[in-house]
Specification:
Elements (H helix, E strand, L loop, with lengths): L2 H6 L5 H5 L15 E7 L5 E6 L1 H4 L4 E6 H4 L27 E2 L5 E7 L2 H10 L1 E6 L6 H5 L14 E9 L2 H6 L3 E12 L8 E7 L4 E6 L4 H12 L6 E4 L15 H13 L3 E4 L2 H7 L3 E12 L5 E11 L10 H8 L10 E8 L14 H19 L3 H8 L8 E2 L6 E2 L4 H12 L1 H13 L3 E13 L4 H6 L8 E7 L5 E5 L8 H13 L6 E4 L18 H28 L6 E4 L2 E4 L2 E7 H10 L11 E7 L5 E13 L6 E11 L6 H20 L29 E7 L21 H13 L9 E2 L3 H5 L2
Parallel strand pairs: 1-12, 8-29, 10-11, 14-15, 20-21, 27-28
Antiparallel strand pairs: 1-5, 2-4, 2-6, 3-5, 7-15, 8-13, 9-10, 9-12, 13-14, 16-17, 18-26, 19-20, 19-25, 22-23, 23-24, 26-27
InterPro entries: Ald_Oxase/Xan_DH_a/b (IPR000674), Ald_Oxase/Xan_DH_a/b_sf (IPR036856), Ald_Oxase/xanthine_DH-like (IPR016208), AldOxase/xan_DH_MoCoBD1 (IPR008274), AldOxase/xan_DH_MoCoBD2 (IPR046867), AldOxase/xan_DH_Mopterin-bd_sf (IPR037165)
Protein name: Carbon-monoxide dehydrogenase large subunit
EC number: 1.2.7.4
Length: 774
Amino acid sequence: MTRGDTEHFARPSAARFIEGRGHYVADIVAAGALHAVIVRSVEAHADITVDVAAAKAAPGVLLVLSGPDIAPLFEPQPIVWNVAGQRRSGLRALAVGRVRYVGEPVAAVVAESPEAARHAATLVRVDYAPRPVVLSPDAALREDAPRLYEDWPDNIVASAAWDGGDVDAAFAGADTVVAGSYVSGRVAAHSLEARAVLAVYDAAWDGVTVHTSTQAPHQVREAIAHCLRVPEHRVRVMVPDVGGAFGSKSCPYAEEILLAHISLRLRAAVRWIETRAEAFVAAVPGRDETVDLALAMAADGRILGLKSLITLDKGAEPYATSVGAAWAGAMMMTGAYRIENVHVGVRVVVTNKTPTGAYRGYGTPEVNFALERALDEAARRLGIDPAELRRRNFVPAEAMPCPSATGLLLLDSGRYAEMLDLALKAFDYDRQIVLASEARAAGQAAGIGMAFYVEPTNLGPSALCGMIGIRSGGFDVANVRMEPGGQVVVFTGQTPMGQGVETVLQSICADELSIPVEDVTVIHGDTQACSYTGYGSGGSRGTGIGGSAVMIAAGKVREKVLAIGAHLLEADPAEVELTQGGVQVRGDGARRVSVAEVARAAYLAHSLPTGTEPGIEARATFDPASLAITYGVALARVEVDNETGLVDVQHIVFGHDCGRQVNPVLVEGQVVGGIVQGIGAALYEELRYDARGQPQVLSMREYDIPFAADVPRIDLVHLETPSPFFPNGAKGVGESGVIPIPAAIANAIRDALGDRAADIVNRLPIRPENLIKY
């Protein structure tokens, strides 16, 4: 990439973050703001009585709330993903009579200062009558298991199954069957900024403005209005800078609802800032899923059939993103491969742990780990090179768009074999096989591994969302307004959270209008000013769906600029073009008016084409016809220390195709960031609990993440196959890096240690103390 290219794709907002000028919820000044502290359960499962009398009498305290106080006032929190037959818990913002996980909110204390609120919180007395604790899906599914909800017949939130072809016949005719249980451990999103809420009462309109660190401002507004039984126009949600999210901030939380209620009730401003210890028990974690998988293989390496059962440990509540991760995993179970005979089952169970929610990849990394581990074992048993086995089973490019056997997935476009070959060449695959073999012969535990992946992105369309139970639509709305000076303002419901979506929307708009990027401003994070988005910023949909809406709206603005420009030039509209910030007659550079002159004429309205309204502004809605499927492959070289079990990831080649790359610099950043998170999930990160359901991770001292020294050399390989379903051809890229890395590293460790590690690498994270045993 040339210097000029780098400057063109620079991120205008980056400088203020580098200089420490980011503006977060904690930085917002609200005169006389009160301070809230949430009292949380210290038991995993118990009946409770809460006594707040002493806390109410403490100095500086204005309000103390417990579950019974708000139960008559609050509706249960809405469930984001609501599939047929799913059970509900009736969750309200504070526990009533019973707690089901450590960290569950039981009371809220509001005081004049943070110190007074913290002191009063220590005076809230909670008496616990312990109940039996259920900590794993196996325990939850036992016939005699204690039920978390007495009105449920068991601990299953929801279950379903999908079939395609004749899977029993496929297994009966198989030459080899590979089966295993593949576990993805529970991980924390661990954003740089934890959650935070500031609710400010406004007497002018008798409403509340909620400043919150979220990915989905419109969904937060809807939840607050629903739970508090107030009209949505009395709730305004504003999102300042978000210090990372990774899915954990995609759902409405109890604290947002509570603080909105307190602000309206006291007619005051009130602030709550989550501590890091709270974040480990109160913010939704991800993964915690087991995939039982069996592959029926022919002797020539063809996949004849697949059976799988996805079991998601939902934690104590199904609210958040509900069963979505399991359902999304079922959709992606067959990956990039043509498998005609399939059975996929899913079940979601509750346990006495913090409820899980969305996390980067949202169900896809878990099933990819299972499928790609099983394929590697199949290749070993059949004596076929792992790359060749995958190549023999790819859905060919000429067969796309191609539905899966279950009908859950449509592979829209892709060149899988070409991508694999490019990555193998970049990795110098044949030579790496020889070098690893020579190292093992010399006593070193060296190995290489690979994993292919497909990723559902650009979440939509709305009809699909409705079919699978998502409470939101899959569309996006953009408003584009040209100001009298020729500059442009884009209003979007998308939320920047470190991924750079504001920069992408700027460049899409600027390209469509042939104006400099710096002449485009993107306004976001304000439900009162910005366009409604159906799902928020999640599902890798910012560029493909949000960007397409901006592109269409900017195209409408472009047409009006051309029409007015032609009128000013006394030319036929068919004879003019928009280029380099001006409208000119084709082939006659002397007959030209600037965009600024056109904009000024539009707002003066002294002389406009007949039937043209003054001003220049356009609105566009984009609802995609299908998902866009990003795909790629990861190859990894590792070495395992025989004495300590420590894994050294030495080199990664990552090939990917996210359609048209609107901003290659941001694409690279997203992919590399995801790769590092994938390394963390593979080797380091895990939220652990003891036998009483007590979390063993409450600070960064107990939660291992990769350091800079743990990041290997990373080489990227790109293809660009535009999605046929999106005007800008873009597919999502925000979650790509994290999906195949755990499987690639696990396969490399398996290669390094041989058959003795075949089972131990099926559980993430792969800990050194476990590798020592082998």
